[in-house]
Amino acid sequence: VQLESDLRHALEHDELQLFVQPQWNGMREMVGAEALLRWHHPERGMVSPGVFIPVAEESRLILPIGEWVLRVACAWIAQWQKQEMTAFILSVNVSAVQFSQDDFVDQVQRILKEYNVPANSLQLELTESMLAHDEQDIIAKMEALKAIGVLISLDDFGTGYSSLSYLHRLPIDQLKIDQSFVANIEQGAKNASLAESIISLGHSLGMEVIAEGVETDPQFKWLNDKGCDLFQGFGLARPMPVEDMLSLYRNTV
Ligand code: G
Ligand code: G
Ligand code: MN
Ligand code: NA
């Protein structure tokens, strides 16, 4: 309860910050980033989203927080469009609580318009676990988002239970291999064959595949050799303030 009222205060007093973690292609070019929330609590210090997102979801504070995240994201994209970063894609995590709102798609469309941002520069990360809920509603919302032109990534992929026939019917642009499948991959761990299967599955469904939690060069190389399209992880770059990412971007292109 304390955390909840602190979180309400945080939202109103700019204690929330949006970090970004770069995403790279096989030629190690930075082609996008994932936006990740950070909370600088005045007493507790840095509170992880793993801790406060569940609190935000339970209290529904995730709704104003999620809207704030979308606005910050679109404001950045609008800047980048003027700075020769027109192909750069920013991915934003969407909570199941947000996505289940009747006006979610309208909200996204309204914010894109407000910031005059091309829809295909914004990617929404939905988790595989969200797919377990109202199938018709999910399909309808994803199709409405696709009609606007927004990209859809399926986060934490491989940890849920989506059936192939269901996946096939969803307009998903990208599968994000959960980091648990990437750990020790280069040592031929059991998860290596799973990661390889996810890459083939994604490609056979016409989807792009990104690996998260890439911590070492051998992991990057292994995944790249298997045809994985994009890479994200501490071994390439940690989540950082947006200014730092822009410096890194300018130094690497
Ligand atoms: O950044 P970190 O790895 O600590 O993130 C932990 C969890 O918090 C991840 O599951 C991530 O998806 C989630 N998360 C981070 N930022 C956001 C956000 O802006 N919105 C939502 N809904 N979840 C987020
Ligand atoms: O659930 P989601 O995929 O949105 O969570 C992303 C989380 O993964 C972020 O909290 C981010 O800090 C974390 N993360 C990003 N790269 C790595 C990595 O290479 N290793 C580990 N252990 N975590 C990572
Ligand atoms: Mn994510
Ligand atoms: Na994930």
From TrEMBL:
Domain EAL: 1-253
Compartments, as annotated in UniProt: Membrane
Identification of the protein by name: EAL domain-containing protein
The organism of origin for this protein: Rhodanobacter aciditrophus
Full protein segment contained here: 733 to 985 of 988
